[in-house]
Write a structure and sequence with these properties.
Blueprint (H helix, E strand, L loop, with lengths): L1 E5 L8 E5 L25
Antiparallel strand pairs: 1-2
């Protein structure tokens, strides 16, 4: 599975597109298949 991980808090250059293991479900755990997600910083 592909993921964007924040490897440092240095802004966009700290984000890395990488392969990660697909998580599995277990007792009291649910896996949700996300098709799209968004992120925004607060406007103050």
């Amino acid at each position: 599975m592909k993921a964007i991980q924040a490897q440092s808090l240095s802004g966009p250059e700290g984000l890395v597109y990488t392969d990660v293991e697909t998580p599995g479900a277990g007792p009291n755990v649910v896996v949700v298949d996300v098709k799209a997600a968004g992120s925004a910083s607060p406007t103050t």
